[in-house]
Write a structure and sequence with these properties.
Elements (H helix, E strand, L loop, with lengths): L15 H28 L2 H22 L5 H32 L5 H22 L7 H30 L3 H30 L2 H7 L1
Helix pairs in contact: 1-2, 1-4, 2-3, 2-5, 2-6, 3-5, 3-6, 4-5, 5-6
Length: 211
Amino acid sequence: MACTCSHAPAPQKPDSKFRTALWIALFINIAMFFVELIGGAYAHSSSLWADALDFLGDAANYAVSLAVFGASLYWRATVALAKGLVMAVFGLIVMAKVVYAAIQGLPPEAMTMGAIGVLALTANVTSAAILYAFRDGDSNMKSVWLCSRNDAIGNAAVILAAIGVFGTGSLLPDIIVAVIMAVLGLTSGYQVILNALQERRNNPLEKQALE
């Protein structure tokens, strides 16, 4: 889902609306991390645990973005680079969880998966809608938007997995969705890393001045 089209340069300073959007998204993601962590453990669902891990990573991303709010473009790009790496690492962690679930062979509890998936989808659609206006900003803003977008897609997939598990009694739909979410995290992380590296290269004088 990486976008290769170019956009006009973003303003050097994010505005107060972006700060407010970050705070809202931060609280939503922290709350949903605990909901999905507990629900995933109860339902034995790899996709719920994958989504919970993603919620935690997003909450950390939003907190870091708030910490560098108003900083120079070079340092915001540096933070975005770190966040891109984290997104990619989370994708690898989810892959490992999928392998473990496949070895265990225990199908998840579909009703719990579906109910939590609907709740998480509602939360992330709200976050994505709030952050939508900032999707074409600098690499830091873009990474924040991608986090919320990925979560909303992941939640919809979890709901589909729950339906699949309910209809088949197999853990395969849960595993398939978890793999998709892992790939989404890896590709999005790669996109953010590329954007951040380009912004750092385009601001060498700013880098030297800050150092």
